[in-house]
Amino acid sequence: MLRFLRTLVSRRGQTDKHPVVPPPAAQEEERLVLSAFATFDSDEFTARTGYIVQNHEYFLQAVIHRSYLQLCPPGQVQSNERMEFLGDSVLNQIVAEYLYDTFPDAEEGALSKMRSRLVSRYALAECARRLQLEDFLLLSPSAHHSIIEGSESILVDAVEAFVAAIYLDGGYSGARTFVRQHLLNFYDNDRMAIDDNFKSRLLEFTQGRGMGTPRYTTIDESGPDHNPVFTVEVQVGGMPVGNGQGGNKKTAEQNAAARALSYLQTMENATPASTH
Q1: Strand order through the sheet with 229-236
Q2: Among this protein's residues, is 160 annotated catalytic?
Q3: Which H or E run includes 52?
Q4: Which of 3, 150, 163, 250 is deepest in the core (most CB within 10 A)?
Q5: Of the candidates 252, 254, 214, 250, which has an alpha carbon nearest to the alpha carbon of residue 230?
Q6: Residue 82: other Cβ atoms inside 10 A
Q7: Residue range 198-274 in CATH 1.10.3720.10
Q8: CATH 1.10.1520.10 in the chain, residue ranges
Q9: Digit-coded pLDDT (tens) for 236-264
Q10: Which of 126, 134, 152, 160 is catalytic?
């Protein structure tokens, strides 16, 4: 169960849980209970990840999703967005260093593609679900529901925030150990070589058959500000051939391209049989 529910039954007696949000003086009952304490279970985090927390404050910052701020007194806390920014940079550095050492004969283009796969939303969301990082996050009910519904954006941000927290707490070596153990070790050389850039593959497919360049159009945008859902349609030769959704336009376009490529390949394979 996610942390926003845990705050309803806050375990105030545990000495290893550090309050970061002071109780507001006058708030409605539900808001008071939800915003009273932000805690981080360092023992559980260590059990799941192997990382021993030294400074709780970094991790308390990492678990506060921006949607949780609406449940807190104004100005009392900050979200983990700054942590996400730092974690993204540290993560890219660690992955680049790993690929440089692991593939000494690979050219820059190949290394860039592999790095893109390893730090993709899919790879980071997979890592977050494997470690069940959502259990540590402080979220609003709507953000919690979006994770249940399969949204990946909050999980991706959580991985980046935790990488930043570990980097600040245990240095570069601590962050590198975490990333290698819980992300890189799950990708062997064959898996890293798989091209999951479906927009690039669709473009190659259509241009190779004289079908022109795919066109992407955003046909819908819904959901709350902290967790939007974009729907994108892709057309080839003026005809819609696939659509996809995602937490941002880039992901939605990739999902639309994947469906379009599957559809066009199926149609191509079926064409010879239909002409007999």
Answers
A1: 215-222, 229-236, 239-246
A2: yes
A3: none
A4: 163
A5: 252
A6: 13
A7: no
A8: 3-193
A9: 999 999 999 988 888 889 889 989 988 99
A10: 160
